[in-house]
Amino acid sequence: MTRVLQRIPGASFLFKLAFRHQTREKFGNKATLDGAAVVVLMPGSVHIGLLALQYLTAYGNVICIANGMAKQEVVFIENNTKFPVLTIPMTLRHSDVIDILIAELEHPFWLVDHDCYVIDTNILTHERMNMRSSDAGVAIYSTCNPINGVIVPETFLMLLNPVVIRELFHKYNVSSRRIKWGDLSRSAVDAMLKLGLSETNMPEAHKSYFDTLRAVAFLAQGEGKGFVMNRGYSLKCQFYPEAIHIGNTSFPKWPPNGRYDALGVYFWRRCLEEPQFGAFVERYNGLCPTPPRTSREIREYLLQSDLMKKGDIPEFLDRLDALISKYST
Q1: Beta strand pairing status for 243-245 and 85-88?
Q2: What's the per-residue H, E or C state across 207-232?
Q3: Which residues are 138's β-sheet partners?
Q4: What is the Cα 222 distance to its own chain's centre?
Q5: Is 234:144 a contact under the CB 8 Å cutoff?
Q6: 139 shares a domain with 75
Q7: Residues 284 and 185 in one domain
Q8: Are 56 and 117 in a shared domain?
Q9: In Å, what is the CA distance from 61 to each residue of 27, 46, 109, 181, 221?
Q10: 141 with 118: CB under 8 angstroms?
C-alpha cells in the first residue's frame, strides 16, 4: 500500500497534513506530554521496535509512531503495547516526522531510535529536569570529528525543545532535514562561518552535508542555546549503564562491512527468531534478505572473521542475546 501511495502526486503533502492534524488533536499542548519519549517505527521493524517500547514501559510517557507500516504491523504493535500509536499510511521522511512534532508539540520530548534501548529510564527524567528552557535540547550520544575536533550531536537518543528549535527554524530558514552548504540561507551561512564551519570544513568529515537536525544544532550553538552533550556516549555500538544503540538494523547488510554492520545484522536476525514474530518472518526476509537464515550461522561467521576483535565477539553477542531476553519477561 505504501508503494502505491508514493506514486500518487501530492500524497506526501496530504499525509503530512493529516499527521500534523492527528498530532495536534491528540497531544498538542498537553502538559502531561512534557518529556514524552517518541519512538518512530518503520516498515520491517516490528521485531526491533517493540523491544524499544518494552524497555520504556517503566517510563510510561511514550508515543509510538507507525510511519508507513503495513496494517498487519500496526495491529501487532497496538495489541502488544499500552502506549498510544499514531499511524501514517505512507512512509514520510524521518526529518518530516520530526519537523511536524516540533511544529505541534509545546513541551520538550525525547526522540528514541527504534533500535535504541533505554535500560535505565531514569536518564530521561534526569536530563529533562536539568535542561534549561533556553537549550535546544540534549544529545546523549555524540561524536568528535577527528579532523577539526567539532563535536556533533547524534540523534539516537535526543531530547528536543520545540519552542527554541521553532524559533531557529524561522530565523535561519532551516528545518531538521539534511541540507547542503550551498542551500543554507545567507544568515545561516554567516552564523556557521562564525563557528569556524565552511563548505570545506563540515562538521562530519565523511559527509558533504548537514545530516538530520545537525544544521539547527550548530545554529543553536552559535546563539548559546546548543545541545547539551555532557555524556558523550559514542556512536559505536556499546553498552552504557543507561542505554545501548545498536545501529544498522533498518536495512541489514550482508556480508557486513565492519563491526557496526555485523552487530546490526546479527541483532536483526536474532530478534526475528523470537516466537511472537513468526508471522513476519517470510515478509521480512523479502524486505531485508541475508543469506544466513539463523543468528547461529551469523554468529559463526563473525567468530571466524576479522570484523571484530575475536575476544569481543562472543561476550558482546551474548549481551545482545540477554538484551533481547526482555521479550521473554
Answers
A1: unpaired
A2: CCEECCCHHHHHHHHHCCCCCECCCC
A3: 159, 228
A4: 25
A5: no
A6: yes
A7: no
A8: yes
A9: 12, 20, 10, 37, 29
A10: no
Q: How many residues does the chain have?
A: 329
- Residue 62 has which C-alpha cell? 511514550
* Residue ranges making up the domain that contains 72: 2-222
Flag whether pLDDT at 273 surpasses 60: yes
Residue 15, domain member (yes or no): yes
Q: Could you report the per-residue pLDDT of 289-321, keeping only the tens digit for each?
A: 777 889 999 999 888 887 766 667 788 899 999
Q: Which CATH number characterizes residue 82's domain?
A: 3.90.550
The predicted-structure confidence for 70-126, as pLDDT tens digits, reads as follows 999 999 999 999 999 999 999 999 999 999 999 999 999 999 999 999 999 999 999
| Domain count of the fold of the chain | 2
Residues forming a β-bridge with 143:
152
**Amino acid (1-letter code) at residue 317:** L
Q: What is the CA radius of gyration of the chain?
A: 20
Q: Are residues 286 and 173 in the same domain?
A: no
